[in-house]
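Run log // design_07
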């Protein structure tokens, strides 16, 4: 029986750390090292190991992740692989996996994984996560439904949809969760068991508005992220408004309080800014849909929407920022953007 061909693309991160010079650890291992650390993995798939970078995930950028997407697309278009596993640091995993989910068009499984404990730690979780990720990418059911499932994150035998996954704690081994929905599946022994398929209407809408998928070959605009807190004075918003170039930002994602709220004294600056660049509000608590028609006070969701602030619906700020980045890069106008956002509300 022919084994699936899986590419393992390594970006660095905790999973790839080696001993440093001052008592800590630093990135150093490559894809071949990560595969070699998993006994018996070659029985599951024919693996193609490729080291793309050796960096911490806090150093990843949108262009760097887009380069990974292009590499996956090229391998898939050449018929060289049946699936891909991307290894990276966990700091930005929820972001990079969602960005891949937004831009990839090939219908092969793509699984992102990493580690919470570095290879010098007791009970290092990296090899187990790589094994689980390859199992998922090679699984016949996952392969058959890859286009509808989208990009997955596999950590600690849990299978998460990229749109739902979040890093919930800074250091614990069980850091990854899907707070709104739960995982879409689990691994049991050598079995991959899917329990649900994520709602990816946003992806369908994005394909419709971009005629098959977003063109990400142009310049990548910068989108600001500003989380509101009690007593926020609005100085950053005023600085954006006062600068003729909006400090170089092409849009703003606002981490709003509650169901989509801002202090009353920030309403006018937000409205002014929304007339110049897209302003999108997302829930700062990382889970749950924003409201649309409940509260009427100044700074409520009704008031902000009426003033031109767009609701990201169920997306948390980190992912709303990436979706706005993709839509701006693809050149979507406000009306087209609104149709995509509507699928998330």
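design_07 sequence
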């Amino acid at each position: 029986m022919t084994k699936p061909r899986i590419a393992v693309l390594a970006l660095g991160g905790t999973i790839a750390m080696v001993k440093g010079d001052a008592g800590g650890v630093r990135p150093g291992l490559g894809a071949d090292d990560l595969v070699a650390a998993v006994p018996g993995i070659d029985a599951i798939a024919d693996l193609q190991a490729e080291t793309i970078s050796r960096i911490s995930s806090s150093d990843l950028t949108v262009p760097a992740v887009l380069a990974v997407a292009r590499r996956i697309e090229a391998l898939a278009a050449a018929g060289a692989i049946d699936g891909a596993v991307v290894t990276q640091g966990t700091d930005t995993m929820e972001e990079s996996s969602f960005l891949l989910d937004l831009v990839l068009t090939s219908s092969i499984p793509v699984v992102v994984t990493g580690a919470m404990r570095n290879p010098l730690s007791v009970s290092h979780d990296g090899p187990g996560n790589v094994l689980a990720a390859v199992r998922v990418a090679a699984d016949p059911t996952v392969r058959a439904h890859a286009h509808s499932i989208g990009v997955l994150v596999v950590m600690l035998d849990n299978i998460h949809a990229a749109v739902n996954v979040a890093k919930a704690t800074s250091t614990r081994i069980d850091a990854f969760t899907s707070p709104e929905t739960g995982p879409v599946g689990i691994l049991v022994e050598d079995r991959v068991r899917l329990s649900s398929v994520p709602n990816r209407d946003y992806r369908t809408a994005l394909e419709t508005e971009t005629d098959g998928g977003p063109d990400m070959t142009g310049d990548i605009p910068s989108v600001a992220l500003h989380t509101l807190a009690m007593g926020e004075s609005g100085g950053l918003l005023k600085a954006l408004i006062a600068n003729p170039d909006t400090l170089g930002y092409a849009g703003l994602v606002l981490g709003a309080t509650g169901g989509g709220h801002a202090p009353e004294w920030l309403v006018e600056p937000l409205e002014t800014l929304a007339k110049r660049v897209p302003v999108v509000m997302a829930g700062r608590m990382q889970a749950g849909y924003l409201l649309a028609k409940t509260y009427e006070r100044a700074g409520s969701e009704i008031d902000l929407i009426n003033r031109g602030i767009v609701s990201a619906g169920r997306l948390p700020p980190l992912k709303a920022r990436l979706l706005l980045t993709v839509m701006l890069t693809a050149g979507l106008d406000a009306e087209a953007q609104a149709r995509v956002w509507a699928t998330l509300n």
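The chain has a mean pLDDT of 97.
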